[in-house]
Amino acid sequence: MKFSSTDPHFGEIVQRAEQAMEAGVFPERISQGSSGSYFVKDPKGKIIGVFKPKSEEPYGHLNPKWTKYFHKVCCPCCFGRSCLVPNQGYLSEAAASLVDWKLGLDIVPKTKVVSLASETFHYNAIDRAKSRGKKYALEKVPKVGRRFHRVGLPPKVGSFQLFVEGYQEADYWLRKFEAEPLPENTRKQLQSQFERLVVLDYVIRNTDRGNDNWLIKYEKPGSEDQSEKGSEWCEPKESVIQIAAIDNGLAFPFKHPDEWRAYPFHWAWLPQAKVPVSLETRDLVLSRISDMNFVQDLCEDLYELFKTDKGFDKAMFEKQMSVMRGQILNLTQALKDGKSPIQLVQMPRVVVERSRGGGQGRVVQLSNAFTQTFHCKRPFFTSW
Question: How many CB atoms lie within 10 A of CB 107?
């Protein structure tokens, strides 16, 4: 089963975004964050997605927010996250959506790589001058203007994530739940959703998961959120809680983070992290990640995604997959042993190296440099 790039619903939403820009309804830059990211709207001005261009990532050459530029110039020794491949945040966003889909977690809003062009994106002076020149030529000398390959600003490649409505930052709801504890059945829903977040973050080794970049939607029976849409909504008999894992651009490291700057999972300090993972989550995930064929298919799907980047480095990608396979190996054991999320993150860090020409993979446990051979019927990763 492949993560198809041909998704009619997703394609329709992107098409609506393009129609909006042609009609003069342009994306709006998001003030928060350290990169150039944009709320994308439909022709009626409704937000339908979030676009994050590769060139405007925190250390991209066209990042419109100057704080990261000064960081890079004035403090190069602390520049960036040394465990991540630079300027691959947009791929990480799309890859997190792919992993979420493959594992059946359903907590990452669908995200894919697309190309968009808008006047509100950050371009250099040369691109804007070329665009003005082409438009002028098309207006004044149509025969010449029609020879141009493209009139207007060049499209930017980036991640496009569908916008989710009715959600608020997790920190907002967690504080409320602390003051007003949830009913037992609703608490179980939250715990189940939380465990899916743990699985996702651990597998992709997210280095940036605070309580401000995952969202919670809490619906009570008869609430305005459910009644305002009329016939489109049926009032549930019980409260409903859903989690949305956004901002996944700083994941898939090629090595485990350095000890002095470990980038911890901040959800590990929550009370939910002390509860052993439920049988529901175990049944959902364990049969998949313990299957070597599934793991290999996942790596191959990620390869197809990552290789589209112009700066793709196959050797570096393999290191990223070695870390991810190590995370999957730990998660498999933790689920079998009935561990809690906090016990999961305390397990020794490992990487699983791709086997070369044989049916065995090599597991490297990093805590004490211990190395052993991991036997399996089929290698985690075969040569292409």
Answer: 20
Burial class (CB in 10 A: 0-12, 13-18, 19+), 98: buried
Q: Edge to edge, what strands does the sheet with 156-162 contain?
A: 28-29, 38-41, 47-53, 156-162, 111-116
CB atoms within 10 A of CB 316: 13
Return phi, psi of residue 116, to 5°: -135, 155
Reported pTM: 0.85
Q: Tell me the pLDDT tens digit for each residue of 38-92.
A: 999 999 999 999 999 999 888 778 877 666 555 555 555 555 688 999 999 999 9
End-to-end, the C-alpha distance of the chain in Å comes to 18
Q: In angstroms, rounded to a whole number, what is the distance separating the alpha carbons of residues 98 and 94?
A: 6
Which of 338, 295, 346, 89 has the alpha carbon at shortest distance from 195? Answer: 338
Q: What are phi and psi of 79, to 5 degrees?
A: -80, 120
Query: Which of 29-43, 174-188, 210-224 is least confident?
Result: 210-224
User: CA-CA distance, 133 to 361, in Å (whole number)?
Assistant: 57
The two structure tokens encoding residue 203: 């597998």
* Closest to 308 in 3D by CA, of 158, 197, 152, 198: 158
Distances (CA, A) of 347 to 103, 196, 205, 363: 22, 18, 13, 14
Rg value, the chain, Cα: 23
CA dist., res. 32 & res. 208, Å (int): 15
The dihedral of CA 11, 303, 205, 342: what is its sign? positive
Tens-place pLDDT, residues 244-268: 999 999 999 999 988 667 888 999 9
The domains of the chain are located at 8-117+157-375, 125-154
> In whole angstroms, what is the distance from residue 32 CA to residue 328 CA?
32
Structure token digits, residue 123:
């371009």
Q: Which helix (H) or strand (E) holds 132?
A: helix 125-140
